[in-house]
Every structure is written in C-alpha cells, then in structure tokens.
Recover the amino acids of this structure.
C-alpha cells in the first residue's frame, strides 16, 4: 500500500515556483530519502503534504485518503521532527515529551509508557529533569526527535534531524530511526548528508527546483549515470604525460588533478584499478596511495543538474 | 520578565502612587493655642464662645484653663501657655511673643468684638432685617443627607492602575498565541499538525491565561486594600466581577494584536504595551484632568477605552449608590471583549498558511 501519494503538486510563492508538478509515492514500511540542495523544495514538500501550506494544484493522499487540515484521524498517525528545534524552554525534557505526546494520547497511563519508550529510544534517561537550554546541541536534537515520535506514529517525517549534531548523537539518532522503521513506521527522511541517506534509506528521491529529478534505490541511482568508478592516486610528481596517458584510456570520462591527487573517472566497470597499477609500476612511478570509489549521490546530482548537492 | 510587568510593576507603581498622594488630603497638623483665662467679671457670652472653641471637635482652636492672675503670669513666663485673657469690663489679652497661637487668640477676641458690634448696629439701624431672617429660616428646604464616601480624587490613580493591569493580561496572550500558531513558531507548527482542533487549543490557552492573570489581579487588589489602605468602598464582589471582565478584555486585545500583526513577538508586546499605556494616559493615570478633557471633547474615546471604562466603573462603585453607571461600563467592556475576540477568532481560525 502507498502510505503517501502525491500527484502533480504545485505550490507558488508569488513568482517563485516552490513545487513544480511534484509527484511522490511512498510505500508502507520504507524509509524514503529526500535529497536536494537548499531551496530545492524539500521542506515545502513536507509542509504541504502535512496540510500546513496551501497549494495551487495537485492532490495529496495519506493512508489512501485525501489529506486536509481537518483530517484529525490521519494527523493522529503522523509524527514530524522539524529541522528547527520545537520544544518549550520552560518545560523539562520529560515535560516536553509528555506535552507533545499528550496532544495525541489522552490516556495518562498509556502516555506515560510511550514517553518512557521515547526517552529510551533517544537515550535521554539521565536528562529527564533538564531544561532545553541546559542540553548540548546533540541532546537537544534527540529531545526534538522524542517529541515528534513519542506517540508512535505510523508515518514519520524527519527534516534534517542531524544538523549540527556530534557524531555520537548522530549515530544514536540513526540507530533510533532504524528501530522505529523495524517496528513498522514509514519514514520520510530529508538530509544534506548523502552518507546518511545512502546508509539509511531504502529508496531515494532527488529534488531540485521543486521537481523530482531522479528516484530509485542507492544502486539504481548510481547505476543510472555514466560514472561507474573513480580511481584516486596520491603522488608527489604529477606530470602532463601521466595525465595524457590516463585521458587516452578507454572508458575514461575525465581526469582531474586536485591537491596532488589524480582523479580518474571511468564510465564502465572493469579491471580499471589493475590497469592503473600496472602502468605506474611499469614506469616506476612512486605513489603514496591508490584507491577506488563508487560514485556518490553528489555525482548523480552533478551529472543530472551540473551542480553540487552541497552548494 | 512577564512576571515583572504583570505582577511586580503594578505593585511597585501602586506603592509609588501611595507615597506621592497619601498625604495630599491630610489636614495640616494643628496645635491648639494654650490660653489661661482669668475671670474677674463674668462674661457669659464670651465664656460660651471660649467653651465652643475649646471643645474636642474638628473646630477646636484653644486649650483653656481657668486660673488666677498670678498663676496665669507664672504660666506665661514658663511658656506653658501662649497667652492669658483677663475678663473684666473688657477682655484683655497678654502675650509675651508673636506667633500663630498668639494670633489665633487675638483673632478670637477681635472677632468676638466685631461680631458683637455688628449685631448691635443691625438691631439699632435695621431691625426689619432680623424679621426677614426669621421668615427665611421658616421656609428653608431641608435636604436629607446621603451617606456617601468622602470625595477623594487621588483614588482615580489607583483605579487607572487596575485598568492598566487588566490590559497587561494581553502580554501573556501574545506570547502564548505566538507559541500556538503554526506560522509563528515551530512549537505552534507541531501543535498545528496534531489531531487537536484549533478551537480547543484557543479556549484552553485563553482559560489558562485568564486564571493566572486574574490571580495576579487579586494580589494587586489585596495589596491596594490591605497594604496601602486604598478605599474601594464595600462592594468587593462587583469589583472582582469588573476585574474579571477587564482581564478578558486584556487577553482578547493580546490575541487580536497577535493575529493582526505579522511581526516578531517582541514587536507585538511593544504594541500591546503602547496601547495599554496610551489608554491609561487618556483615562487620567498621568494627568488626572485628561479623563475629563476626553469626556468633554472626545466622549466616544472614553467609551472605547477599556482603562477609562474600568476606572469609571470603580469610581462609580465608590462614589454612587446606584449601579446604573457601573453596569453601563460593564456592558461596554463586554462589547469590546466580544469585538476583539471575534477578530481574533477570524484571524486564528485558519489551519493552512501561505508560508511557514
């Protein structure tokens, strides 16, 4: 079943088109990554799906029903973690989670159990009596998440939840998201961080200027572009002969030099690295390091749009 | 900060008002002139005058003791008295220095003589005027004296303070409305996507603000009555009702400002402060005559100014025995609260926004 079905969604801010004939389908139980540079329309997309924003045309269905501001039954099963921290400074950690959970769960005993589960999930057991201003950035993000998911929603939107977060908190957050998904939640995850999206998401949608420009699994996206492998050689002496040689090789797309590293981009898979090593050894060219990497989502975005994902 | 402006600031201001105005109506401490009377020949009329002026009352001017001449001289030399009167064929005053007390005694004697001479002249020259006076007295209209409170204009300052503090309830509603509205704060966005209908949020928030603010109003009232002895008469229940309605007006004003202005929370609070202070000014808080000037030249402004209405209602409770004016002010306040609430509801009822 499609948990979310968006068709031909268009949203304008005066002359600016924030969402341009945007279409999206999200299957039940999947983690969908929404990737795109600043201003691509990720947050607008989420806010519109949640019926927070008016839109000019299109249709939005959640759990197979039309989504409107009055659909409290649908809203009861949705949780949102915004990019900005949305907690009350006057309340403690536990009080905040309890307050926001209380908007969904009326039963006090049930709510108490949900709050405890949320606290455990994000690892804030030792900070229950702390006020938000007493928490570090990472802990605050965890609190933000707990407030959004405490009521155990079936559909969760996470809008850049790991921005400016320390590595320990980030790992904790990502682990928590996986656990939520394992328990049955469908998750829409937006981020700047390609590595997170690659590791976490079952499917990825890449957006730019309000449109979907690519969609698929991690492998599908990477296989859809010309670039299939990039080999990096770290060496002191880079001369033109070396560059010319690599440029002439079959299936090489381009050769770049940056900071004493030669990057050779290949369009087909094969024994590319073996070929490079053979040449270097034959010509007694000393190198510090030689490595191969698969294309990143940034490469996918670059090939599709001509610009970097992180602008 | 909110606690300061809505609780501590009115208490501080009330204290300052009390310090500034509390002794304005106190009569100047008056020390009676001490007089010794030496009666050589009896003068019943003058004795009656002296008895009247030495009676323990609001009109007391003299402290009198009857004594001998020698004793009187001794008392004067010791400065135990301000002067002594010798009543013989004439009345003779002896003093040893000039001062207010001595002047008073002198004035009493002079006035006695001049009044006496005046009446003698009238009887001799125009006896008909005496007859006319008698007829006038017979036809006098008699008025029943009403038990009204002593007129004290300084209470207006305290009443306007109550009115102003009612409007200060708007600060809380601005802050909370900002936190509840989806396009004004992220907490509001979280609440907006919850399955809770907006009217429930609006009502529960307004009720919470009302309870807290009304409690602060009661603290202020208690301080004014018991701490500063400001007179409010004996109609506490009417005053409490008035404060409740005034608080509702203040909260509605705050909600209205919040939904009409698309600015930051601080700007909205500043606008709320400005409106409260302006209303208080035109109600006579800074210049007491302003209230009357507004009534004279812009009467409509007085009826749409909540602080003016609250002040007037309190004053009418204090000064009048009927409630017509009080209930009229209550009605005006209810109307203002209704209009402001209506505007707020229209502005806040939207569930979708153009942008967040």
């Amino acid at each position: 079943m499609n948990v979310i079905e968006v068709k031909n969604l268009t949203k304008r801010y005066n002359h600016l088109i924030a969402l341009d004939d945007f279409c999206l389908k999200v299957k039940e139980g999947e983690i969908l990554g929404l990737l795109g540079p600043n201003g691509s329309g990720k947050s607008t997309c989420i806010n519109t799906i949640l019926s927070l924003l008016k839109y000019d045309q299109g249709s939005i269905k959640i759990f197979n029903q039309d989504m409107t501001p009055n659909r409290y039954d649908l809203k009861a099963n949705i949780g949102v973690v915004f990019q900005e921290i949305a907690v009350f400074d006057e309340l403690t950690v536990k009080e905040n989670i309890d307050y926001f959970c209380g908007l969904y769960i009326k039963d006090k005993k049930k709510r108490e159990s949900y709050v405890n589960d949320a606290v455990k999930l994000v690892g804030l057991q030792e900070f229950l009596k702390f006020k938000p201003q007493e928490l570090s950035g990472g802990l605050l993000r965890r609190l933000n998440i707990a407030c959004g998911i405490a009521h155990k929603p079936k559909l969760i939107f996470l809008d850049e939840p790991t921005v400016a977060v320390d590595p320990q908190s980030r790992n904790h957050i990502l682990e928590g998201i996986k656990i939520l998904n394992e328990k049955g939640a469908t998750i829409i995850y937006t981020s700047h961080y390609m590595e997170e999206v690659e590791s976490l998401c079952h499917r990825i949608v890449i957006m730019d200027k309000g449109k979907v420009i690519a969609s698929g699994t991690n492998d599908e996206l990477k296989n859809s572009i010309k670039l299939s492998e990039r080999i990096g050689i770290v060496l002191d002496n880079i001369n033109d002969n070396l560059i010319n040689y690599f440029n002439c090789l079959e299936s090489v797309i381009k050769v770049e030099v940056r900071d004493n590293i030669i990057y050779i981009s290949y369009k087909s898979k094969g024994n590319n690295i073996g070929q490079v090593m053979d040449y270097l050894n034959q010509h007694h060219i000393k190198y510090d390091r030689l490595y191969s990497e698969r294309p990143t989502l940034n490469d996918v975005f670059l090939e599709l749009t001509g610009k970097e994902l992180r602008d | 900060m909110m606690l300061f402006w809505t609780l501590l600031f009115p208490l501080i201001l009330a204290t300052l008002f009390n310090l500034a105005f509390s002794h304005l109506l106190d009569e100047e401490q008056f020390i009676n002139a001490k007089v010794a009377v030496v009666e050589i020949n009896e003068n019943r009329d003058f004795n009656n005058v002296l008895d009247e002026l030495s009676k323990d009352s609001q009109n007391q001017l003299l402290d009198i003791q009857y004594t001998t001449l020698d004793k009187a001289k001794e008392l004067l030399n010791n400065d135990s008295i301000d002067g002594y009167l010798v009543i013989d064929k004439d009345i003779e005053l002896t003093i040893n220095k000039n001062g207010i007390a001595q002047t008073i005694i002198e004035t009493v004697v002079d006035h006695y003589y001049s009044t006496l001479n005046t009446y003698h002249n009238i009887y001799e020259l125009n006896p008909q005027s005496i007859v006319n006076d008698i007829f006038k007295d017979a036809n006098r209209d008699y008025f029943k004296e009403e038990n009204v409170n002593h007129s004290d204009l300084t209470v207006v300052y305290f009443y306007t303070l109550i009115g102003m503090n009612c409007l200060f309830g708007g600060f809380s509603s601005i802050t909370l409305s900002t936190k509840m509205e989806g396009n004004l704060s992220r907490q509001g966005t979280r609440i907006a996507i919850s399955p809770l209908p907006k009217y429930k949020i609006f009502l529960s928030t307004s009720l919470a603000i009302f309870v807290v603010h009304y409690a602060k109003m009661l603290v202020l009232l208690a301080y004014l009555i018991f701490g500063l002895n400001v007179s409010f008469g004996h109609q506490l229940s009417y005053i409490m009702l008035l404060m409740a309605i005034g608080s509702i007006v203040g909260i509605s004003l705050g909600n209205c400002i919040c939904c009409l202005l698309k600015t930051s929370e601080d700007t909205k609070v500043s606008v709320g402060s400005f409106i409260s202070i302006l209303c208080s000014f035109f109600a006579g808080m800074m210049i007491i005559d302003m209230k009357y000037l507004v009534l004279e030249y812009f009467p409509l402004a007085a009826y749409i100014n909540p602080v003016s209405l609250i002040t007037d209602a309190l004053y009418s409770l204090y000064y009048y025995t009927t409630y017509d004016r009080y209930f009229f002010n209550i009605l005006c306040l209810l109307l203002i609260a209704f209009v402001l609430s209506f505007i707020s509801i229209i502005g806040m009822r939207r569930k979708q926004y153009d942008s967040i």
Notes: Chain A touches chain B through 26 residues (CB under 8 Å). Chain A has two domains: 2-223, 229-294. DSSP finds eleven helices and 14 strands in chain A. Residues 14 and 119 of chain A are 42 Å apart (CA to CA).
